[in-house]
Amino acid sequence: MNRAFNRKKDKSWMHTPEALAKHYIPYNAKFLGNTEVEAPKGTEVVKDAVRKLKFQRHIKKSEGQKIPKVELQISIYGVKILDPKTKDMEHNCQLHRISFCADDKTDKRIFTFICKDSESNKHLCYVFDSEKCAEEITLTIGQAFDLAYKKFLESGGKDVETRKQIGGLQKRIQELETENAELKKQLQDLEEQLMIAHVPPVGSISTKPQSTDIFDMVPFSPVTPLVPVPASNGCPPPPPTTLPPDISKDLFGAEPFDPFTCGAADFPPDIQSKLDEMQEGFKMGLTLEGTVFSLDPLDGRC
User: Fold this and answer.
1) How far is CA 58 from the centre of its chain?
2) Which parts of the chain are beta strand (E)?
3) Model's pTM, two decimal places?
4) Quick one: which of 65, 156, 163, 239 has the fewest CB in 10 Å?
5) 59, 77, 76, 57: which is closest to 68 by C-alpha?
6) Contacts 24+ apart (CB under 8 A), 268-277
């Protein structure tokens, strides 16, 4: 049952779209941990994961270890899991990778979601204790997913084929830039060899005009730097400055990949693979459920 979208028809969402698109909704919870599961969806899948992690926490509790507290930040960009004191990010679960979300309708504390790991591509089930707001958190994730999917369709998801062509052109431009740099280096080496060959003997004066290259240009000499030509108003132009390259931008000055920003220059050459992955994740959809996870003795307060 896709309760998120059924709930949306019956009752308005809990948060404004601006709150999730421009900011984030924070929640405090205890993090029982995550564990690998075999499927991206299913009530029984998350039930087994909850029982496993609760059992592990029960053992750790008997050894004197406390369940770590975390802060959840939910937005259209994903669910971030942070240390509440240092704000260091422990996990970043992108929404298109989250396929299943469920809360425990018996005690209103335990909730869980399944997310595909970005590096290993394994499905991991995350389990939390949220102090009686499990359903609210799952609905917030559902709303964020709904907004993210709509924005994806409005931007990058509309014209995937166009962006594929743009990515190919950008890659070709990068190859040509590299080839051009190599040709410039070869040309400079040839000019230096010509200059050495035309150096007159010591003490002799040569009236021969200065040699030019194949383009009828005076060869570049690192010994005699170019002198800037004064501006027409008599004021010399400012000295050229060399700025360090911005590592946060690509070869064309584009910002890091943002799936919700429309514009050809904003996407790196590998955009197509990212868009394909997002399309696949959003197409699978997010399923929200309210269920009974477990009624065994380990279900006491963590």
Assistant:
1) 36
2) 25-37, 69-75, 78-82, 89-93, 98-104, 110-116, 123-129, 287-291
3) 0.60
4) 239
5) 57
6) 268/167, 268/170, 269/167, 269/170, 269/171, 269/174, 270/167, 271/156, 271/163, 271/166, 271/167, 272/160, 272/163, 272/164, 272/167, 275/156, 275/157, 275/160, 275/163, 276/160, 277/96
Partner residues linked to 93 by β-bridges: 79
Both structure tokens of 239:
């000295």
Which tokens in the block code for residue 58? 């029960």
Is the model's pLDDT at 3 over the cut of 80? no
Please give the CATH number for the structural domain made up of 17-155: 2.30.29.30
Paired tokens of 209: 């005009």
- In this structure, how many other beta carbons lie within 10 angstroms of the beta carbon of residue 196? 8
* Distance from C-alpha of 62 to C-alpha of 85, rounded to nearest angstrom: 25
The CA distance from 24 to 94, in Å, is 13
The β-bridge relationship of strands 287-291 and 89-93 is unpaired
**Tens digit of pLDDT for each residue in 151-170?**
888 876 555 556 666 767 88
Domain ranges across the chain: 17-155, 157-195
Residues 110 and 50 sit within 8 Å (Cβ to Cβ): yes
